[in-house]
Amino acid sequence: MLELKPLDSPFGRAVHGLEISEGVNRDTCRVLHEALYRHRVLVIKDQTCGEMPYLEFGRQWGEPIPHVIDTHRMLGYPEMLEIGNVTARAKDKLLRNSAAFWHTDQAYDADPATTTMLYARKVPELGGETLVVDMKAAYDDLDAATKQKIDGLKAKHLYGATSGRGGEEPTRALNKAQAAATPPTLHPLVRPHTVTGQKALYGVAGTAYGIEGIAADDADRLISDLKAHCLQDKFIYEHKYTVGDVALWDTQMTLHSAKPIDLPSGPGTERLLWRISVRGKPAVYQ
């Protein structure tokens, strides 16, 4: 029987009693979708599925997005990524820690991600956590004057534009072909959820580098202030993975960052997660 329990956090739920490898029916999917949209984060515990059942589960949330950096894609499964420190590309520190800065997945795309999920295959004893911010709670906590000021403003986004700031890890620059596929795009600073209609701050770190119609210095200051507001401890959940976790977050309502990780140095130091990010509405809402 499906059971949802609060995480050790102001938001998020652990999900028990579900086996993705057996397939997930439409009614159960709807329960999971509604829970994610209400709680921002779900952690489905104790999973033992292979690539195809996991990918089929991902497709029930939307259209999987092949990453713009094609070398990140999983061999044989281009809609998935291998994240961690055990792959050949992980020898490159920039690639290994390419998500160790605050960002929103695919905010650099005109049609951004709506849900991201990570399936923990190998987990280090120390480190390897993911930090997630509840951006709806952060928006709700703003004073009325700030809400009025930012309502209707559109931020300019570009892949990795502000990674590496404030002690965060930088991400590798795109090559010419990759950059051409992801030109600068605009998204509202306050964005309504495409299913629930609820408002949240959106994409104020990692890719946002300006605001349409506002001088560069003023825009940078406003984005920085909003980011600082969001990164208060009361809005952050830190997830420590165990093997078999499938952690999902609502990318329309969250900001997240990996923690930097070193190369493995022996037993208990390896990290491997399979990532799927999707765009669009789940099939049950079509």
Condensed summary:
This protein is α+β, with helices and mostly antiparallel strands. The chain is built from seven helices and 17 strands. The chain has one domain: Double-stranded beta-helix (4-Layer Sandwich).
Describe the model:
By secondary structure, the chain is of the alpha+beta class. The protein has a single domain, classed as Double-stranded beta-helix, CATH 3.60.130.10. Helix content is 21%, strand content 27%. It has 7 helices and 17 strands. Strands 1, 2, 3, 4, 5, 6, 7, 15 and 17 form a 9-stranded mixed sheet that branches. A 3-stranded antiparallel sheet has the order 14-8-16. β2, α1 and β3 form a beta-alpha-beta unit. The chain is globular and about 50 Å long. The two termini are 27 Å apart. The mean pLDDT is 96.
Percent of sequence in beta strands: 25-35%
Classification by helices and strands: alpha+beta
Helix content: 10-25%
| Poorly predicted sequence stretches spanning 5 or more consecutive residues | none
Strand count, sense and closure of the main sheet? Answer: 9 strands, mixed
Give me the CATH superfamily.
Answer: Clavaminate synthase-like
N to C succession of SSEs: EEHEHEEEHEEHHEHEEEEHEEEE
Average pLDDT level: 96
What's the count of strands? 17
What distance lies between the first and last C-alpha atoms, to the nearest angstrom? 27 Å
Question: Mind telling me the C-alpha Rg?
Answer: 18 Å
DSSP summary: helix tally = 7
Question: Which class in CATH terms?
Answer: Alpha Beta
- The CATH architecture name reads 4-Layer Sandwich
CATH topological fold name: Double-stranded beta-helix
Q: Based on CA inertia axes, which overall geometry fits?
A: globular
Number of domains: 1
